[in-house]
Design goal:
The protein has three domains: 64 residues; 80 residues, Methionine synthase domain (Methyltransferase, Methionine Synthase (B12-binding Domains), Chain A, domain 1, Orthogonal Bundle), CATH 1.10.1240; 120 residues, Cobalamin-binding domain (Rossmann fold). The chain is 63% helix and 7% strand. It is built from 14 helices and five strands. The structure holds cobalamin.
Length: 282
């Protein structure tokens, strides 16, 4: 009899609150000749002790999480990012991860707002292009560390083609949105930066996708989207929906309709919601 195997099964069943399954493990141990005292000590007590310990650690982590002052951390993060202090930036992220803050929350509450603030400085010409390059490079490294913590969980929710329009090399927002979509069950084909309309359509045909997600950060690259709509219609795909996001759409909330897109989302989580709505998934 493999006691460790029985224990693992019993513990998992209790943890997932599958009580009848837990009971059957006890019966199984009994059938295999395990004395009642052993069942009590080696299965029941041990599993209860472990559950109790884990519950305690989880509630401590939750308590610590409640105390996190995101706006203060965000300010600090932004200052370090602006002055190119890569080590300090990474330290903030490591500390948040150690406090069990989820990667998605860090992306939404710390990383994205900091880049938006950099964009505001850029539009007022209060930051140099080299400072933007450095902050984008540091952000890229942070994002590369966080995204693997949100692994794909494909469950047949549908295929989505994503990319930046031709002439657009703003990759960060696209990578984040693609990761959120994969994490919430979609299969995503990421065509990368600088994608011609014809390539989007080719991939719709190849992958039998119903949605195209376009990440456009420059107004003039976003203006390619009506041509994509025309091309899709001409090739027999009027039912394929176009969803957009990125700086020009964040600035002007009507723009997506003017460019004949079907939907817009301001960040990764809403992007997932929009995808579900358009595919009729509850
Ligand atoms: C970093 C940055 C760069 C970096 C890009 C590095 C990289 N590898 O990505 C560099 C330095 C290369 C760059 C270059 C340029 N940039 Co620039 N850049 C930015 C900046 C500061 C941040 C963009 C970013 O990465 N944000 C981080 C992401 C994570 O944030 P986010 O937008 O919140 O993303 C979320 C949502 O938008 C949404 N989302 C994003 N994509 C999608 C897609 C879909 C389908 C959905 C549903 C949602 C969604 O979800 C994301 C995650 O939650 C923006 C300012 C801004 N406010 O956006 C300017 C900005 C986009 N850049 C601008 C400009 C002008 C340029 C240059 C022309 C500058 C120049 N003179 O050379 C070049 C053009 C390069 C090119 N051809 O692509 C302007 C564009 C203005 C306009 N109206 O067109 C902006 C808005 C700055 C400004 N305020 O003037 N840039």
């Amino acid at each position: 009899m493999d006691i460790e195997f029985l224990y693992a099964k019993f513990y998992q069943a209790l943890k997932e609150q599958k009580f009848s399954e837990a009971k059957s493990v006890i019966y199984e141990a009994h059938r295999e000749g395990m004395p009642a005292g052993h069942i009590l000590v080696k299965l029941v007590n041990r599993a209860l002790d472990s559950l109790h310990k884990n519950l305690h650690e989880d509630s401590q982590a939750t308590a610590e999480k409640i105390e996190i002052n995101f706006s203060e951390i965000q300010q600090k993060y932004f200052q370090y990012l602006m002055s190119g202090k890569k080590g300090e930036v990474q330290k903030i992220i490591d500390e948040l991860l150690a406090k069990k803050v989820e990667a998605g929350e860090i992306l939404l509450k710390i990383i994205t707002p900091a880049m938006d603030m950099i964009g505001n400085l850029q539009s007022r010409q209060e930051i140099s292009l080299s400072q933007i390059f450095i902050s984008a490079k540091i952000t890229d490294d942070v994002v590369a560390k966080l995204l693997p913590l949100m692994p794909p969980r494909s469950n047949g929710m549908g295929k989505i083609i994503i990319g930046n329009p031709i002439g657009d090399y703003h990759a960060l927002g696209r990578k984040i949105v693609a990761t959120f979509l994969r994490f919430y069950g979609f299969d995503v084909v990421d065509l990368g930066d600088n994608v011609a309309n014809e390539k989007f359509v080719e991939n719709v045909m190849k992958e039998n996708a119903k949605l195209i997600f376009i990440s456009a950060f420059l107004l003039h690259t976003a203006k390619n989207i009506p041509d994509l709509r025309n091309l899709l219609n001409a090739k027999g795909f009027p039912h394929v929906k176009i969803v957009v996001g990125g700086a020009p759409f964040n600035f002007d909330k009507q723009l997506y309709q003017q460019l004949r897109c079907d939907a817009y989302a301001p960040e990764g989580l809403t992007a997932v919601k929009v995808a579900k709505q358009l595919l009729g998934i509850a």
